[in-house]
C-alpha cells in the first residue's frame, strides 16, 4: 500500500451526498456515518448548486445522483468537481450497461446502483479518495456487457419509432408521423425495446429511453 493510500485510510474521508430525494440522502448519510466506515458526511443535499455553495466544499469525494433532475449535464458536474480536486462516485436507480458506461465516460470513477448494499458505496468512496475505481460486481458485469454488447439489429421502422417516441411524442403521434396505426407503432416501439434489452441495454422507461437517445445523438442534450 502506498503512503498516500495509508494516509487516506488513517483519516476519515470527507464526503458530500447529492440526490433529488431527501429520504435517500438522509438514509445514505446515516449508513455512511457509522464509525467503522471511516467516512465523514459533511453535506447531504438535494440540489447541485447547494453543493457548490456549501461551506464544507470542496470535499474529498462527492456522491452524486447520475440522473439529478436539473439543467446541468452530469459531465459538466464532474468537470466542475474535478477542477476542485473532488473525486466523483455516481449513484443511479439502474445498473444497465448504457447508464454505467455513460457515467464513467463522463468522468465518474464508478457508479453504485441504489439497489446495492451500503458496503459497496463505502468501498467505492474509499477507493475514489485514493484516486481509484472500485466497481461492485453488478457494475463490472454491466461494463463487460457494454464491451461485448451485441448490435440490437433494429429494423428501420423500429428505429424510427423509438427515435420519435424518445422525442416525447405520444404513440398516436408516432403512428401519424409514420403513416400507420397506433397498434403498429406501439408494436415497433415494443420490439425495439425488446431487442435493446437482449443486447444488454434497458430502455424500459421513458427516462431511460430519453437518456439513451441523448447518448446516441437522436435528440440534443437537455
TrEMBL record:
GO terms for molecular function: DNA binding. Coiled coil: none annotated. Keywords: DNA-binding. GO terms for biological process: phosphorelay signal transduction system; regulation of DNA-templated transcription. The keyword Lipid metabolism does not apply. PROSITE patterns: RESPONSE_REGULATORY. Residues 14-129 form the Response regulatory domain. The keyword DNA-binding applies. PANTHER family: TWO-COMPONENT RESPONSE REGULATOR. This is DNA-binding response regulator. It comes from Amnibacterium setariae. The lineage of its organism: Bacteria, Bacillati, Actinomycetota, Actinomycetes, Micrococcales.
Amino acid at each position: 500500500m502506498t503512503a498516500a493510500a495509508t494516509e487516506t485510510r488513517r483519516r476519515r474521508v470527507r464526503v458530500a451526498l447529492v440526490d433529488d430525494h431527501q429520504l435517500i440522502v438522509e438514509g445514505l448519510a446515516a449508513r455512511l456515518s457509522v464509525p467503522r466506515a471511516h467516512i465523514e458526511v459533511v453535506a447531504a443535499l438535494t440540489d447541485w448548486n447547494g453543493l457548490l455553495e456549501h461551506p464544507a466544499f470542496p470535499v474529498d469525494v462527492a456522491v452524486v445522483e447520475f440522473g439529478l433532475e436539473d439543467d446541468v449535464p452530469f459531465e459538466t458536474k464532474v468537470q466542475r468537481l474535478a477542477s476542485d480536486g473532488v473525486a466523483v462516485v455516481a449513484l443511479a436507480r439502474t445498473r444497465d450497461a448504457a447508464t454505467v458506461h455513460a457515467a464513467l465516460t463522463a468522468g465518474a470513477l464508478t457508479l453504485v446502483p441504489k439497489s446495492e448494499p451500503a458496503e459497496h458505496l463505502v468501498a467505492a468512496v474509499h477507493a475514489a479518495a485514493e484516486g481509484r475505481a472500485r466497481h461492485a460486481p453488478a457494475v463490472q458485469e454491466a461494463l463487460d456487457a457494454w464491451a461485448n454488447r451485441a448490435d440490437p439489429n433494429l429494423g428501420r421502422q423500429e428505429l424510427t419509432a423509438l427515435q420519435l417516441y424518445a422525442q416525447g411524442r405520444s404513440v398516436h403521434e408516432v403512428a401519424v408521423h409514420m403513416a400507420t396505426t397506433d397498434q403498429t407503432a406501439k408494436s415497433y416501439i415494443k420490439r425495439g425495446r425488446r431487442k435493446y434489452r437482449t443486447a444488454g441495454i434497458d430502455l424500459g422507461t421513458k427516462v431511460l429511453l430519453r437518456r439513451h437517445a441523448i447518448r446516441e445523438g437522436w435528440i440534443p442534450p437537455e
